[in-house]
Amino acid sequence: MRTATARAHPNIALVKYWGKADEELILPVAGSMSMTLDAFATTTTVTLDPEADEDSFVLNGSPATGTALARTTRFLDHVRELAGSRERAHVDSMNEAPTAAGLASSASGFAALALAASRAFGLALDERALSRLARRGSGSACRSVVDRYAVWHAGTDDETSYAEQIDAPDLRLVIVTVDGAQKAVSSREGMRRTAATSPFYDAWITSTARTLEEMVRACAAGDPTRIGEITESHALRMHAVIASSEPPVRYLAPASVAVFDTAAALRAQGVFAHTTADAGPNVCVLTTPADAERVAEAVSAHGSVRIVGPGPGAHLVD
Ligand code: DP6
């Protein structure tokens, strides 16, 4: 029986990915940059089953059906194609983050699945090939393959669109869970709507490419303040372009906005605090190891908080 187990963590983008140039290959309209977290792991075991006619998928102890199963099967089809195999597989996945609560569990999920499935099917992919494979499951998953900080090069085709590690100063994220509820519009659907209807979409694409270049320079210079400033403005630009869609989409809740304000007030007192948020109401405040406790205490009025730092990329476990 061929089996493999892998573990991966979510990542939080400091330069956001929002919009696809190719839906089938999941090529983004612009590159992005993220921190892989040291918390909320997904651990996935893939076991090949020569007897089975269908793939099966158990998530957190319950058999998955519908879209979740279909997405897993479609992903395994990519792995089968690479491996030249027709065998079906059983996937068993445990996710330590609340699913769809805005902690990008699809990123840790597909990064862990890419590694476990590629090994179970007998493939030994290098980091770039693994990142490209994970991208086919969920765009942001290509960044969770990488340790600590990652840049996802947008690329122009399957070969050139992958994430790789980038050096950056040691920072922390204070994750504020303001609402654990399932988000109303998935990122996939939200991206489509923004692309199809926002009058600001072209400006978002061209400015994101420039922002990423600036972020890469700030990382190379080891300039945490500039990294923080870019992080917050880029997050707000993403939420602005999303809000300009029709029908409109708004992911931030009043408590999320309150965290942005609290971080601004902390900055006025000399504390390192810059806010970002993905496609949901939860927010993350980027800070330094020295200021993390102070930030966590200040924002705890708006939700439950957890301090996380840079963590490992996808890896095999026994
Ligand atoms: C707001 O990677 O979940 O978190 O490629 O359609 O699976 P798909 O989308 P996904 O989108 C993540 C969007 C984001 C920003 C980011 O992580 O860069």
Description of the molecule:
With 318 residues, the protein is an alpha+beta fold. Helix content is 39%, strand content 24%. The protein has nine helices and 16 strands. The strands form four sheets. It has a six-stranded mixed β-sheet with strand order 8-7-9-6-1-16. It has a four-stranded antiparallel β-sheet with strand order 2-5-10-11. The protein is globular. The two termini are 15 Å apart. The model has no long low-confidence stretch (mean pLDDT 95). The site of ligand DP6 has 15 residues, from helix 5. Ligand DP6 binds next to helix 5.
Secondary structure: elements and pairs:
Layout: E1 3-8, E2 11-15, E3 20-22, E4 27-28, E5 32-36, E6 42-49, E7 56-59, E8 62-63, H1 66-83, E9 88-95, H2 105-120, H3 127-137, H4 141-144, E10 149-153, E11 162-165, E12 172-177, H5 187-197, H6 201-220, H7 224-243, H8 254-268, E13 274-277, E14 283-287, H9 292-299, E15 304-308, E16 315-317
Parallel strand pairs: 7-9
Antiparallel strand pairs: 1-6, 1-16, 2-5, 3-4, 5-10, 6-9, 7-8, 10-11, 12-14, 12-15, 13-14
Helix pairs in contact: 1-2, 2-3, 6-7
The structure holds ligand DP6.
Brief summary:
Keywords: ATP-binding, Lipid biosynthesis, Lipid metabolism, Lyase, Nucleotide-binding. The chain has 318 residues and is an alpha+beta fold.
Distance between the termini: 15 Å
How large is the count of helical segments? 9
Strand segment tally? 16
Content of β-strand: 15-25%
Helix/sheet category: alpha+beta
Q: What is the element string, with H for helices and E for strands?
A: EEEEEEEEHEHHHEEEHHHHEEHEE
Main β-sheet, spatial strand arrangement: 8-7-9-6-1-16
The description of the largest β-sheet is:
6 strands, mixed
Q: In percent, how helical is the residue content?
A: 25-40%
Mean pLDDT: 95
List low-confidence stretches.
none
Bound molecules: ligand DP6
User: What is the overall silhouette?
Assistant: globular
Indicate the radius of gyration in whole angstroms: 19 Å
